[in-house]
Each structure stands twice: as structure tokens, then as C-alpha cells.
């Protein structure tokens, strides 16, 4: 089986969920007898990488139409490679070029790419996370119009049951369910929490809340900071340093900036977290080993994202025996256990239409999130049970 894989470049696995998943999937395919893979590395120009290149061939992309989605090279690579299948692992709107022959700005693809796609000597598959839905519970009409057409994908899959349902709606034929995983040998309970915090330069005895996400609009980073501020209203002993176990509060956001990113330092001031015994940290570009240390330093993973197609960091945290508190919306609902009357799932307070396709994002109930964390702080037995449940839940999500 000859596979051309088109997604965010796997060699930058610290960058996005697409990169992280691509790295693991391609490693598995490359090692399977009878499989050959070529990667079209979106966002990869063939130089300046921080890590050694992967052992499979990588074809670079160039800026085309203002976006790097492989429109310039993927189809040509698939023909030259004599591929059996070309897989586009990307958001459904970003993959539309393969059947509409125009990029998202309406600019036509190169003539040679159109010629190859038109005769298509290979199967065309979409593997897409879906991170929201329309008010009627379906995908946008524009998606159905594109993917119900005569010229469409031959197969579709999603990493969540939520996405599987919506892609089935988009395509009019059954989509497959192929969940992501994590490296449970790396992300596992290990070492001393105080030592991990010392390694990262963090206070050893503070309640430590961690959010790992790309810094972009959909991640609702302000909800993380608002929850921390409301927690201090409920547990002033954290700010005063008088809690019997925790001597303060540490808030950590880890992630690279993307389009429409939030000003993390500004959020610290907006929500009044620049005060004694409260520490706010911003980290980025940690390798996997560094991420494992960061999870080990955490008491809670607080990922109140507006919507997720899967949400790998929540699983990585839980595999490290760190409970995850996430928005009860999109695929996020599937990546945490029901645990203690749904403790891990924070319902949306409102839904907000996305600016470009009217899928809905969730704004979480930060009051309830703060109540949940306050209960966690005050109940040692709850902390023990949630850590156990988190680890047990995560074990179903391991890469082959």
C-alpha cells in the first residue's frame, strides 16, 4: 500500500495536534510490512527544522494562495509516487481544494494538479477532526453541497464519534471512527511532583493549573484565566497562602501563537492574577520530554476550549495521572470520564458562531468550573479518585 499523507509537518510535533498525530501515524505506517509512505509536510519548506527529519520521504510545500495546504504539490506527488491513496488529514474546509480545485481564497489550483485530480489514479480520503456544529446539530449547508457532489472524497474518517456523525452528514455515506492516541510510555505517572516543578522553576507547593493548547481564538484561553480568578474568590486561602496544603496558585499556559492569538500577559492583568502567592507562566516549544515534565508538575489540566476535534493534551495529562476539566462540547466530551457526577465536564454557558462558517464554539460556565476546582482543593479523597479515574480512562488511547 502506497500512501501519500498531507497534513501539518510531523517533524514539528510540538506545534499542533495535526503534527503530533501525523508523527505517530506515519511512524506506525512506515514500520508496517507492505506499506510505503510519503509525507507532504504542510508548513515545511525543507530547512531550518529543530529536529532530525523523519525516516520517510517528505515533500515540502510552498505558499500558494496564502495558505500551506499542499494544493501545489500533493496531487503531483501522489501521481509520481504511484500512490494507492492520498490522505488529507486536515479540517474539512481546508481539504475542499481536492474536489473543488480552488483554494480557500477562490484561486484556481495549478493546471497540472487539476489534471491529476480530475482523472485521479488514486483513492482520495479525508481524515478530519470536527470541532463544532451548527445550531441545528448538523454541518453547514456549504459542506454538504461540496461533499455530496459527484466529485468528492472516496472515504472519510474522524478521530471522535462526534466528528464521525457530522462527517457522515457532510458526505452522505458512513464515515469511519479512528481515534488518536498518546505515547503512554512517555506520558505516565512518574517521578516527584516537587522535582518537576523545580525543573520548570515553579513554586513547589502551589495548586498548579495547566492548559496546553495552540494560542488561537477557538481555544478560549480567557476562560482559563477567568476560572482561575473565580477560584480565588471561592478559595481566598490560596491567594493568602493559608491553605493547609497549597501555599498559593500557579497558572500555566503552554502553547504557540497562531492567528488571532490572545495576549497572555494582558490576560493576567485583566483577571487580577498579578498578586502575591499567584504565579502565571507562559511556556512554548517544549519537546515531548518537557511536556511530560509539565504534566507531572500539574494538579489539574483545565482545557475549557471552545471546541475540539479530539484534544490530545487532555489525554496526555490524564495518562500522567492528572485529572482533566474540559468543556462538555464537541469531541471533548469523549476524552474525559464521567467521574463523580460528571465532574470533568463543564457545560457551555453559551454557544458562539464561528466567524467563517457558522459552526458553533462553546463559552464554558466558568463559575461551575471554579466550583469544581474549589471542591477538588477541599477534598483529598476526591483528588485521589479523580487521579485514578483519569489514568484508567487514558489507557484506552494508546498508539499502536
Number of distinct beta strands:
15
> How many angstroms does the end-to-end distance come to?
18 Å
Helical/strand content category: alpha/beta
Strand content: 15-25%
Helix tally equals 16
Largest sheet: 7 strands, parallel
Gross morphology: globular
Widest beta sheet: strand line-up: 3-2-1-4-5-6-7
Q: How much helicity do the residues have?
A: 25-40%
* Mean pLDDT figure: 92
Low-pLDDT stretches are: none
Round the Cα radius of gyration to an integer and report it.
Answer: 22 Å
Describe, in short, the structure shown.
This protein has 400 residues and is of the alpha/beta class.
Keywords:
400 residues; alpha/beta; seven-stranded parallel sheet; six-stranded parallel sheet; 16 helices; 15 strands; globular
Please describe what this structure looks like.
- Helix 13 links the parallel strand 11 and strand 12 (324-327).
- The protein starts with a strand and ends in a 6-residue tail after the last helix.
- It has helices spanning 17-30, 74-80, 92-95, 97-100, 111-119, 141-147, 161-171, 193-199, 221-234, 236-240, 264-270, 288-297, 312-319, 339-342, 366-378, 380-394; strands spanning 2-8, 36-42, 58-60, 85-89, 123-127, 155-158, 176-177, 207-212, 249-254, 278-283, 300-303, 324-327, 345-346, 348-353, 360-364.
- Helix 2 crosses helix 5 and helix 9 crosses helix 15 (366-378).
- With 400 residues, the protein is an alpha/beta fold.
- The model has no long low-confidence stretch (mean pLDDT 92).
- It has 16 helices and 15 strands.
- The strands form 3 sheets. A 7-stranded parallel β-sheet has the order 3-2-1-4-5-6-7, sandwiched between helices.
- The longest helix is centred in the last third of the chain and has 15 residues, at 380-394.
Amino acid at each position: 500500500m502506497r500512501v501519500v499523507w498531507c497534513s501539518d509537518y510531523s517533524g514539528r510535533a510540538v506545534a499542533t495536534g495535526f503534527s503530533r498525530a501525523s508523527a505517530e501515524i506515519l511512524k506506525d505506517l512506515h514500520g508496517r510490512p507492505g506499506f510505503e509512505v510519503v509525507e507532504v509536510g504542510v508548513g515545511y519548506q525543507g530547512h531550518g527544522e529543530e529536529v532530525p527529519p523523519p525516516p520517510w520521504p517528505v515533500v515540502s510545500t510552498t505558499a500558494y494562495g496564502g495558505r500551506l495546504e499542499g494544493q501545489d504539490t500533493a496531487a503531483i506527488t501522489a501521481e509520481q509516487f504511484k500512490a494507492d491513496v492520498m490522505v488529507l488529514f486536515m479540517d474539512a474546509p481546508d481539504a475542499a481544494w481536492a474536489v473543488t480545485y480552488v483554494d480557500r481564497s477562490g484561486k484556481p489550483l495549478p493546471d497540472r494538479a487539476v489534471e491529476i485530480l480530475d482523472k485521479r489514479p488514486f483513492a482520495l480520503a479525508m481524515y478530519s477532526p470536527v470541532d463544532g456544529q451548527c445550531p441545528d446539530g448538523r454541518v453547514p449547508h456549504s459542506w454538504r453541497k461540496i461533499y455530496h457532489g459527484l466529485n468528492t472524497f472516496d472515504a472519510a474518517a474522524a478521530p471522535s464519534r462526534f466528528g464521525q456523525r457530522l462527517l457522515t452528514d457532510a458526505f452522505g455515506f458512513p464515515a469511519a471512527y479512528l481515534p488518536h492516541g498518546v505515547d503512554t510510555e512517555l506520558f505516565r505517572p512518574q517521578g516527584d511532583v516537587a522535582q518537576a516543578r523545580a525543573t520548570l522553576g515553579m513554586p513547589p507547593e502551589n495548586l498548579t493549573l495547566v492548559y496546553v493548547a495552540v494560542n488561537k481564538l477557538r481555544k478560549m484561553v480567557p476562560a482559563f484565566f477567568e476560572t482561575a480568578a473565580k477560584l480565588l474568590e471561592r478559595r481566598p486561602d490560596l491567594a493568602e497562602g493559608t491553605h493547609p496544603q497549597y501555599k498559593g496558585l500557579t497558572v500555566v499556559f503552554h502553547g504557540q501563537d497562531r492567528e488571532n492569538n490572545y495576549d497572555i500577559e494582558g490576560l493576567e492583568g485583566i483577571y487580577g492574577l498579578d498578586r502575591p502567592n499567584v504565579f502565571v507562566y507562559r511556556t512554548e516549544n517544549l519537546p515531548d520530554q518537557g511536556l511530560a515534565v509539565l504534566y507531572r508538575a500539574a494538579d489539574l489540566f483545565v482545557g475549557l476550549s471552545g471546541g475540539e476535534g479530539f484534544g490530545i493534551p487532555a489525554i496526555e495529562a490524564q495518562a500522567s495521572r492528572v485529572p482533566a476539566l474540559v468543556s462538555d462540547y464537541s469531541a471533548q466530551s469523549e476524552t474525559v470520564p464521567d467521574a463523580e457526577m460528571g465532574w470533568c465536564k463543564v457545560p457551555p454557558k453559551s454557544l458562539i458562531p464561528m466567524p467563517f462558517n457558522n459552526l458553533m464554539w462553546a463559552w464554558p460556565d466558568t463559575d461551575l468550573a471554579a466550583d469544581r476546582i474549589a471542591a477538588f482543593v477541599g477534598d483529598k479523597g476526591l483528588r485521589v479518585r479523580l487521579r485514578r479515574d483519569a489514568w484508567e480512562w487514558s489507557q484506552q488511547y494508546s498508539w499502536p
